[in-house]
Amino acid sequence: MGVRALSAVVLLLTLGLVAACTPGSPTNAVAAAPAPATVPATAPTTQPTTAGGGASWRAAMATPDPLLADLTDDTIFRLGEKMYRDGLLPSGEVMEAYIRGDIEVDSTAFSCASCHQRAGLGSVEGGVVTPPTTGRLLYQPYRRPPSLNDVADFKGRIVYAKTIIERPAYNRDALKRSLRDGVDPVGEAFNDVMPRYPLSDRDMAIMVRYLELLSSVYSPGAELGRFSFATVITDDVGAADREALLTPLRQFVAGQNQQIALYRDFLKFGYQPTGDMKYSFNTVTLAVWELKGPPATWDAQLAAYYAKDQPFALLGGISNQPWQPIHDFCEARRLPCFYPITDLPAVSPHTWYNVYFNKGYYQEGEAVARFLKRRDGVDADSRILQLVEESPAGRALAAGFAGGRSDLGLAAVETIAVSAEALRQPQTLAALVAAKKPGIVLLWADARALPALPVLIARLAPPAALFVSSTALGAATTTIPEALRAQVFITYPYRLTPFVGDPAAAGFLARLPTTTSFRNFGARRIATRTATMLNQTVLQGMRVLYDNLYRDYLLDVLSMQMDQVVPDYERISFGPGQRYASKGCYILQLGPGVEPELLPRSEWVVH
Predict the structure, then answer these.
(1) How far apart are alpha carbons 184 and 555 in whole angstroms?
(2) Domain limits at 406?
(3) What are the distances in angstroms from CA 114 to CA 45, 135, 160, 455?
(4) The predicted structure's pLDDT at residue 155
(5) How much is the pLDDT for 544?
(6) ∠ CA 62-555-545 to the nearest 5 degrees?
(7) What pLDDT does 514 receive?
(8) The domain boundary residue, chosen from 335, 355, 375
(9) Rounded distance, CA 345 to CA 1, Å?
(10) What's the confidence (pLDDT) of residue 346?
């Protein structure tokens, strides 16, 4: 074996999927390494019309169901999607469904997607394997992977399993029967928690055709051996913050493209790749989408970028303005956007394609509401005054407090909007407090309000308290006068306990320092959070996509990840439909001195 070949094999075994490389890409775009003239058969560069599948499925795709002759596939897909994801019939009525023989369940809460996932490629939950449900895979013979609930005999043969282990291929009629009666193509019964659907012939035909179409064509921006990504930067972001975002992204691109080159060397010397290796090494490109001007113009700019680049997903991004326009664009295009650096994410229970680290300012306000509910001396009679800066940050903090207190029985809150001019006039703010006589003041403002703290607190009788946001105040938080600190409570959405990572597993992430002291106030943690996004989410997802190159499947995979310990948060956790990974925020106070200790007054998650 030659030295170069040996080096390639060693690197493939030791580097894993992350290689730290010297950034050298231009500021404006992070390009992939040039592809060689000959590309191995394991990494083709042309995208198939459909994503694999056997002859039976291809025949079904080409053979319309006579019951649906008046409907286009686009219409069928739209109607079937409502049935599969939402449990709603084309008529708008709730689908009937039964489990355990005759127990009726609500299909809107017990939808197909809740177990088989939105991409239809199945899930693993609590050791139970839910098999794929797309026509491409149903119309092939199937043998599922082992489950933790399987019981085997002394020869390793499975003698008990909660779900079907092996089955022959379905056809259209067998699939209709399975949905109605809960049996596979040879009559073996499903697990009795799998619903049975007494659908009409036409509705059943719509559902079956939907499953034939589901995850049948690769998503834009992906083909075997190649992924295209993009990131978004708005023009209000400073040069240092911009580079803090782009440096880890450049390292990611360079590392991926270095490894595909090594993989090709591996193949040239005649070594056979394992099944996993066929899908683990990919050429990556990254476009930088720069948005200029007011947010009202962003949608058109994003549409132009999207038409040109067609990325598989947006990786991070950064803006100091509300993320809502970008959020809306991604939801409309079904374009995943992973962990942008924003304190102003869209906060909605219905988001799917946007994944955030947390709810930003909203989460800090929410944490204060929950903390007050648990604090001694605060009850329905306590008077709470909210002084809200007329800014997106101030409004988001107030909205989070309102959301957090809505079901907690706190007293009514009096809210006063405060202009930037009023924030520079301590006596004006003090007069408001003196007139309202609150027991608690929430000062949702930036550092311009700090000079007002002495006169504000002078009008509050202990144990009255004043709450501020560390994100809004930034590095100035630690300048709160020592004499006032006993009555000032601070929201802090980041890690307090020391981060202990595995340097071998964390790659370049391990070389990014993470502090947990007063020095960290004001740090946006752009580089570390972007590296977390790449290492803990994108790379982990890409490892298990294999040839299932669908945006929804990448999001499905994310929802099945275990909780993770990362540098900037005590933990990030996932679950079906969850799009805010960090659920915590400390309430703390500052200790004495010019280098104050951070004193937590709440747990990481305030219940």
Answers:
(1) 28
(2) 362-492+588-600
(3) 34, 18, 25, 54
(4) 62
(5) 85
(6) 65
(7) 56
(8) 355
(9) 53
(10) 97
